[in-house]
Recover the amino acids of this structure.
């Protein structure tokens, strides 16, 4: 990987020198800004189409945003970035974004740019777009390259803007290596000081709700247990479906632990975003586990702390109070009760078992829910995280996939068509 990027650097360096030479007349003080001009253009476009001088960006941190409207992950990231951009503008941060479009035509570009509050390289300037793509070796979109003002060489361009924006948001500004080191350190410290009590107890509340309501269960009774924090709401249909599955798996895990007479124990705590008390009560009444009280302020803290992007979501906290995984839902879907206790070691073991089992699965399968033949794929052969078209739940690792239309199901969800004579038989 390193060698490849060295190679690219070399190629790009030659490009740079000629570009800097040509554009020098517009911007002489900063190499980074000269990248945004061309030999006959010293401006960028605002979303309304007015021209903004590139030199106006002097001294700002610049996010060079490679994106296209036709690709869903781009549109999603744009939405996220608009939100962060507005926050950065509001707090006076010296930040600007420049959109480098891969849209199919001018109309699509204009529509997409109108959703963005920042500047863009004109759509017609193919040469600049191409040279920026080449210079930063952009292999996939969305891609956000962060340029530091007045810096050249190493540390001037930061490539993982998309990840950083998703992971840390505006906290990461000005997106320098130093700031990111600081954030990682903070994260580690927070992790080390994390306990069940500081996660789940409130200022004046040291209990959770149990059944029958209004039974109160002390938070410290969970210490030493593996605890699932279950973020969901009754208005969320996938949540309601997943709850049914989780209840049956919860009982199975409890039964197994009881039968094995082990010291460890499992509990789940509902962290609800139900809309009102009545809805919450009805919802919680369907569940055999504990809950944070309705509208408890900790709900918001936990949602931010674990960076919950959507519900239902299941975060697993270990007996020592540290986070084991945020992928609880996915693990339950893949491995059911066997996922317990959700640790890395357990997941590795389960993955190995699954790889073994997959060896015995047919490479092709006809599933009654789909008219085309499905092919067995793994992470390495075109698989990856997916939503199962049969049970609507997440999956990863092995899957049966329709190469033609992208239809994908868990191997366990395939119900084979009673095989009559096949076409090649
Ligand atoms: Zn499925
Ligand atoms: Zn198909």
């Amino acid at each position: 990987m390193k060698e490849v990027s060295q190679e690219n650097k070399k190629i790009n360096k030659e490009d740079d020198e000629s570009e800097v030479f040509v554009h020098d007349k517009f911007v002489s003080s900063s190499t980074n800004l000269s990248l945004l001009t061309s030999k006959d253009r010293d401006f960028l476009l605002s979303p309304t189409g007015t021209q903004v001088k590139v030199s106006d960006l002097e001294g700002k941190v610049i996010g060079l945003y490679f994106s296209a409207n036709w690709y869903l992950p781009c549109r999603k990231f744009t939405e996220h970035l608009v939100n962060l951009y507005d926050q950065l503008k509001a707090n006076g941060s010296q930040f600007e974004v420049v959109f480098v479009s891969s849209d199919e035509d001018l109309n699509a570009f204009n529509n997409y740019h109108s959703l963005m509050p920042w500047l863009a390289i004109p759509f017609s300037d193919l040469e600049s777009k191409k040279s920026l793509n080449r210079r930063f070796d952009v292999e996939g979109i969305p891609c956000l390259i962060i340029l530091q003002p007045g810096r050249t060489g190493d540390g001037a361009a930061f490539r993982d803007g998309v990840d950083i924006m998703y992971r840390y948001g505006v906290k990461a500004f000005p997106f320098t290596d130093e700031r990111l080191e600081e954030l990682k350190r903070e994260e580690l410290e927070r992790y080390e000081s994390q306990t069940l009590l500081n996660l789940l107890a409130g200022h004046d509340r040291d209990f959770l709700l149990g059944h029958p309501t209004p039974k109160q269960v002390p938070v410290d009774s969970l210490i030493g247990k593996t605890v699932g924090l279950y973020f969901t709401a009754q208005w969320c249909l996938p949540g309601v479906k997943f709850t049914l599955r989780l209840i049956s798996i919860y009982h199975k895990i409890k039964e197994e632990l009881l039968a094995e007479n082990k010291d460890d124990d499992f509990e789940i705590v509902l962290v609800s975003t139900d809309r009102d008390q009545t809805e919450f009560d009805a919802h919680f009444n369907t569940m055999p586990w504990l809950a944070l009280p309705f509208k408890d302020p900790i709900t918001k803290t936990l949602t931010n702390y674990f960076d919950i992007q959507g519900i239902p979501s299941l975060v697993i906290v270990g007996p020592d109070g540290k986070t084991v995984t945020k992928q609880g839902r996915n693990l339950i879907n893949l491995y059911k009760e066997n996922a317990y206790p959700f640790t890395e070691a357990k997941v590795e073991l389960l993955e190995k078992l699954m790889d073994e089992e997959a060896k015995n699965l047919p490479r092709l399968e006809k599933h009654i829910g789909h008219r085309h033949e499905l092919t067995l794929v793994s992470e390495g052969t075109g698989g990856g995280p997916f939503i199962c078209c049969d049970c609507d739940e997440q999956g990863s690792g092995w899957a049966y996939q329709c190469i033609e239309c992208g239809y994908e199901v868990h191997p366990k969800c395939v119900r084979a068509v009673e095989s009559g004579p096949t076409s090649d038989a």
Observations:
- The mean pLDDT is 87.
- Residues 370, 372, 402, 404-405, 407 surround zinc ion (ligand 2) (CB under 6 Å).
- The chain is about 35% helix and 15% strand.
